[in-house]
Design brief:
Distance between the termini: 29 Å
Number of domains: 2
Helix content: 40-55%
CATH superfamily of the largest domain: P-loop containing nucleotide triphosphate hydrolases
Radius of gyration: 18 Å
Number of strands: 4
Strand content: 5-15%
CATH topology of the largest domain: Rossmann fold
Strand order of the largest sheet: 1-2
CATH class of the largest domain: Alpha Beta
């Protein structure tokens, strides 16, 4: 699970990425080093941190922290990656990098993400679901369809209002 705000542990970059791997099983140091390197490379942050893996992860920029959280999740080789408001608070350059990363990862695992940005959904998703929360913490699915059908041809009036920007 990747949250909207980075949730790093107060430890080194290396230990943040290795944490879940250590938690689920023992790995020799050499193997763990390879797992950490591959995950950090997969999250497109290797070039920025490769010489500082034992530096505090909390010293990284916001965008780097966000990608490091992705690396930590990828290190355990998940089948599904959940991302809450995947680019919330990111600058435009980091948002593009994150979207490019999602484009690459979508062929390796299933990604379920929450986004309030219709254009982002249209660029990144194969399927779209629109939920309506009416004070109920569970919410109600208003509509679910392949994105290419959903966005131009929504059937539910609430979906049309949301996509057009007039949702109340």
């Amino acid at each position: 699970m990747i949250y909207a705000r980075p949730n790093l542990f107060p430890m080194s970059i290396y230990d943040n990425v290795a944490y879940g791997v250590k938690l689920i099983g023992w790995h020799p140091k050499v193997e763990l080093d390879d797992i950490v390197e591959l995950a950090v490379k997969s999250a497109d942050v290797w070039e920025q941190v490769k010489n500082n893996l034992y530096k505090s992860a909390l010293e990284l920029s916001y965008g780097q922290q966000h990608r490091l959280c992705i690396a930590r999740a990828l290190a355990v080789k998940p089948q599904v990656l959940l991302m809450d408001d995947l680019c919330s608070g990111l600058d435009p350059v980091t948002t593009v990098k994150t979207e490019e990363l999602i484009e690459c990862l979508r062929y390796e695992l299933t990604i379920v993400f929450i986004s309030y940005k219709v254009q982002q959904v249209s660029r990144l998703s194969d399927f779209t679901a629109l939920f309506h929360y009416n004070g109920n913490p569970i919410g109600q699915i208003l509509e679910f369809a392949p994105t290419k059908k959903f966005l131009p041809h929504t059937f539910n009036y609430r979906s049309r209002d949301y996509i057009s920007g007039s949702f109340r």
